[in-house]
Every structure is written in C-alpha cells, then in structure tokens.
Structure prediction request, 515 residues.
Amino acid sequence: MGNYLFDLVRARIPAPDAPFALLDDGRRLSYADMVAVSARFANALVALGVKPGDRVAVQVEKSIEALMLYLGTVRAGAVFLPLNTAYTPAEIEYFLGDAEPAVFVCDPARAEALRPYAEKAGAKLETLGIWRSPEVSAGTLADKGLAASPEFADVARGADDLAAILYTSGTTGRSKGAMLSHDNLASNALALVDYWRFTSKDVLLHALPIFHTHGLFVATNTILFSGASMILLPKFDPDQVFRYLPQATCMMGVPTFYVRLLQDERLTKAATAHIRLFVSGSAPLLAETHRAWRERTGHAILERYGMTETNMSTSNPYDGDRIAGTVGFPLPGVSARVVDPETGAALARDEIGMIEVKGPNVFKGYWRNPEKTAAEFRPDGFFITGDLGKIDPAGYVHIVGRGKDLIITGGYNVYPKEVEAEIDEMEGVIESAVIGVPHPDFGEGVTAVVVAKPGASITAKGIATALEQRLAKFKQPKQVFVVPELPRNTMGKVQKNLLREQYKDIYAPALKAGE
Ligand code: AMP
Prediction:
C-alpha cells in the first residue's frame, strides 16, 4: 500500500521542472522542489518521533514552509491539524488538550507564551521559521528540514486513514475536530479539478489563509491534483492582487475579497483579462456583488458551497448559467437533499428546509466525539449540515439562512454562543445576545447586546476591552450595546430576529461616515 493522497499528487506531476509555486519575494518552486521540500519536513517530523496517526498541530503565519509542512505531515502518515492564527493562548490550550498532538508547531514569536500549553498536552513544541529570513529560521523546524534528507519513503496510508483534522466551532459546546480522510480530500480535489476544468497550465492567485478548508484544501489541493501552479501571497492585499492578476488564470476568494476589489478603481476588464475563473465561497456572495463584478470585468463569479466537515458539496456550473444567489448543483458523486429539519422527511422542490449531503467528500466524524457524530448523521448516511435552504426546479441549491445562528464575518465563522459565554461571565452582566448584522466590509459584523445588573457600572467600552484578551480578533464584537432587557417569545427564547432588525443599520456606510 502506498500513501493514498500523495501517490495521487505524484501521479499528476506534469514534469519535475514544472512550476509549482511562485512567491511574492520572487522565489519559485518546481514540482521537484515540492517533492524534495515536503520530504525534508517528513524526515524532520519522523526524527521528532511522529508516528502514523499522530496529530501535528500547527499555528503559524501563512508561508510556503507551512504548506510544505502540511504535505510532509501527510507523507509521514500523520494527521495535519491547522489552527487559526488569530486564536489566543487560552483557545490554543483547549485545542491541544483535545487533540493531544505529538508535536505542536507555532511561530517563533509565540513559543514562550504557548510552551506551557504544549507541555501540559504532552506535545513537543517546535517553531517554524522561514528560509528567506535565516535569523528567524535558525533552530526551527524549517532549519531541521533543511538539514534532513530530500528523500523520503512515504508512509503507507489508505483511503480511509486520516489526513487532517480541522476544528469547527460548536453552537452549544466547544469546537469539534472534523476528521478528514485521505479520500475525503482526494475525491473532492479530483471532482473540483474536473468540474472547474483545471489543467497544468493554470496559475492560481492564492491569497486565502491556509488554516481553513478553503485555502488549504479547495485552493491548494486543486492545484496539486491538476499539476497546476500558484502564486502564493501571504495575505489578501489589493495591491498584490492587482500586481499578480496578469500572471494568473484563476482566483479563489471569500466574498469580502470581491467586495474590496470592487471598491478599487484598478478593477477593469483589462486587469482581469488573463483570468478564466473567479470562484467565491465560505459565505454568501451578494447577488449585487455578482452583478457589479460581471459589469466591471465581464466575468461571472462562480459560487460554490461547502463546509469544514464536507469539503465542497455544490458548485455553480463551469459552462451554463452561474446564477447569483445560488450555490449551484451537487458536485459529481455528491448527493444533496432538503428535508424537514424535525422529521427528516424529504421536501419538494422550492421548499425550504435543512440541507443534507452524502458522498466521499463527507468527513469521518468528530474527533473523540461519537455522540455528536451520531447526532449529525441520518441513518442512511446523510450529514445534517445545519444550513437551511432549498433546491429550485432547475436543480440549483439556494442557502437561505443558517439554522444555528452562525455569524460569518469576513469569511470566518463566529458562533454567538461562544462570545455570549465570555460576556455572561463578566462581573455585572445578567445575560447577552450576540448577533450578526449586515456590514459593508465583512458581510456581517459581530454585535453584542448586553443586559446589566441593576446598579452595575459596566459600559459597552469596558466589555469590548475585556473581550480583547479572551477572544480572537475576528470574534470580538464590533459594537456592544447595553440594554435594560432582551426581547423574548412566549417560550422564553430570546428573539434574535428582532435584535437583528433593530440593529440592522448600525454598520451602514452613511452611519460609518458620521452622516
Ligand atoms: P466552514 O466550515 O468554516 O467552511 O463554514 C461552513 C459554512 O459556511 C456553511 O455551513 C455555510 O453556512 C457557509 N457557507 C459556505 N459557503 C457558502 C456559500 N457559498 N453561501 C452561503 N453560505 C456558505
């Protein structure tokens, strides 16, 4: 038995000297470099004692080294576990305790703050420098990789063995680790390559973070599985995007990318003439954005839908109509249906209900959480996504809302419950409700509505400041309101829909400008 995922990647390498990555400092990696560098990381991990099935948890800034560490981990037979760079030490403590990785890799600057948590979880702490800064890479895993052999005999792993665990927040409890097998990733990459017509001639403009399914799997694996290449940018920066668009053939982004680029006068037909495909996902793309993009550039953005647990499930067509406000059809091999959330009975076309999916893309379950796994699957194997939607008579899937009150801000998910729990713990607070309301830049802005104890001296500013130490920046409310009470229905449930209505204009551009 070979290494399921990496064997498929190897088999698609067009030529050893074919380009794999172009970096913003001018460095270029060929496919032969990709194989050698990932082998060095695999060797370095094995030398650290990493065994097949061990987790390798990684919280580092985006870099080619980090991407090669992902491949090295897979080749070593271990399980790659990326963590959002915005997570605070307190959040990292939870993830390490839950995942019990053999190794935890972080940025050198955070090593001292995070060392106690790695030790507590029994993980070896390693740091990852970058080769272009030798002073930063000295003594780090990057250096250990350089010292290791560029040859590595890939550890045998089958289709159902785990390749990665990605944590996804929970509405009612802590985050859960979604277990993704070699075949979950490979089957989805192959489906997307085919559906989106990727070939070795493609060049992807890669400006997404790589700790999330979108940038790590959708973007990177599609390139690896088509023998194409990528321009790897450290982050989304319009100047960089406009600089590299003429060299790229496709770009993948969250809706915020498109909204920001539309605000830039450099966005023209000429600037995007070399691009054959713009893809959007991770949050709803406004029909207005789709329309404006088409008008300015002549390109119809292709919107697709997926989640950490399922990889990609649906996509608008490559040929045929890409319909704004829809997420297209189930990908080949994937089944999607809409059911009554209570009974699970199938609904007719155009009826709104719970979206459920089944296929080789769907994860193996939540890490060490069989109860939660059982609760999210139907007996016939369909996964209950938690998204509400419908399938129209033409077969296009529409997402109409999130059953779980998830907030999506700048493409990141924020579960209100997690923020509410932090606020409710504060001295002088009775309760809180956290909602997402329309925000021109982020899609939704996290907003907290808090009820204070009579006579308590808490202020909106005090709450916001206290949260800075407790939550990743993207989860922190952009505005906090202290109110006498929350609206409730007769069953005692807080009516968040009324709050959303009440606060729906607070981030409107006119208000932001102080008009
Ligand atoms: P994540 O697990 O972080 O990828 O988030 C998955 C969630 O993002 C899904 O369950 C949806 O609620 C939402 N999502 C992803 N893509 C889309 C889309 N194209 N339109 C609307 N919501 C989306």
Remarks:
- The chain has 17 helices and 24 strands.
- Residues 168, 213, 281-284, 303, 305, 307-308, 327, 385, 387, 399, 402, 406, 413 surround adenosine monophosphate (CB under 6 Å).
